[in-house]
């Protein structure tokens, strides 16, 4: 079974039913899994070179998840073999004053990949139907309208040459507690701790329900969701790297044809 099939979400996906500790791709040996991920990351880098050289395709990778779910770790572990010229990592924070003065997708559209590029969204436009809904900054009617906007937006991107893959990094509540406590206990990790994370943790159940609702409303063949069990950092990276590589391989990328004008050219 392919990784795409293993982790593919659906309109019926319920996050609470997904085992965050599941490791279906693991060999049972942590070091072997790490080496496999490195090999996959290297192959992703080679695929990206053909993507960059051909300038015909674009890949958008969306990473969503609760605090401590491993979005930063995924970026480091999966996309570390890509030429910096061919990848863009975008981290979305709370919108600025000027961003708030525009529609909520305005700042997102500016960051989508250009031809030949992979762009990774560390958080994304889905914050506008997650955080906003948890805190009742928008009501259910506006949330439904935004689901429709997002579906239209992603369809437009797909129809103009962007391949989209969306990942929910799913951790358990106990694992989040462990990771937050580690940030408190380890002085070298104190900088990672944000008291706001504890406030957001109080809305754990609401977030799980909203993740499921967002997936059910916006999953599509041209913009699929994958739910990645992420209690294991090693397996999380292995799973995401596998899906990304399968997605790139399905594009059947090839280097551009040789330039006949260079045949026989000698450098003296």
UniProtKB/TrEMBL annotation:
MF (Gene Ontology): polyphosphate kinase activity
Chain positions covered by the region annotation Disordered: 1-34
Polyphosphate kinase-2-related domain boundaries: 29-251
Top-level division of the source organism's lineage: Bacteria
Comp. bias (Basic and acidic residues): 15-34
Pfam families named in the record: PPK2
InterPro entries on file: P-loop_NTPase, Polyphosphate_phosphotransfera, PPK2-rel_1, PPK2-related
Keywords, sorted A to Z: Kinase, Transferase
A GO BP entry: polyphosphate metabolic process
Coiled-coil intervals: none
Family: Belongs to the polyphosphate kinase 2 (PPK2) family. Class I subfamily.
Protein name: PPK2 family polyphosphate:nucleotide phosphotransferase
Originating species: Glaciimonas immobilis
Lineage: Bacteria, Pseudomonadati, Pseudomonadota, Betaproteobacteria, Burkholderiales
